[in-house]
Design a protein that fits this description.
- 27% of the residues lie in helices and 30% in strands.
- The protein has 5 helices and 7 strands.
């Protein structure tokens, strides 16, 4: 299953929906993570907040391929995309294990294939390096076998990269 998380304007929704199995629009019309860890312990992989992101842990957890389309914010995800990723912490458990000689949380849904990030907007070479490293570490933490980052100057150029 391919899941796309994006912070583009809603005029891009139909184009994105045609290229994936499930789309999460990071439009900010949901609550931010409260840090209660209920999605880890009390009701696994489900947020207690009753909004569009209540099931986001399960959606991302079942993705073979996760594609994130985000505006560059100093070499990191936009605030809206970061909020979605924060709400998906329940894709793992609070227990720890070693993966690749490093300590990581145990995966609730097992391994995945590709963590891909499409970044648009002005971006320096240093920010590109930061984004590549960030995507690589996020992929490892969430159990993805590989990561990829591609860059576009404008949101209109993103379509050709999907």
């Amino acid at each position: 299953m391919k899941v796309i998380i994006h912070d583009l304007e809603n005029q891009y929704d139909s184009m994105i929906e045609s290229r994936c199995d499930y789309m999460v629009s990071a439009d900010g019309k949901y609550a931010p993570c409260q840090g209660c860890f209920g999605c880890w312990t009390k009701h696994p992989a489900e947020c207690y907040m009753k909004d569009r992101l209540q099931q986001v842990c399960r959606i991302i957890g079942q993705a073979d391929e996760l594609e994130i389309i985000t505006k560059n914010l100093y070499g990191g995800y936009s605030a809206a995309v970061k909020n979605v990723l924060d709400r998906s912490i329940g894709t793992s458990t609070p227990l720890s294990t070693y993966r690749g000689r490093q300590m990581h949380h145990t995966l609730r849904y097992g391994k995945h294939d590709l963590w891909r990030v499409v970044v648009y907007g002005d971006i320096t070479e240093a920010e590109k390096d930061t984004f590549r490293y960030l995507a690589e570490r996020n992929a490892v933490n969430d159990g993805f076998e590989r990561s990829e980052v591609v860059f576009a100057e404008t949101p209109a150029e993103v379509e050709a990269l999907l």
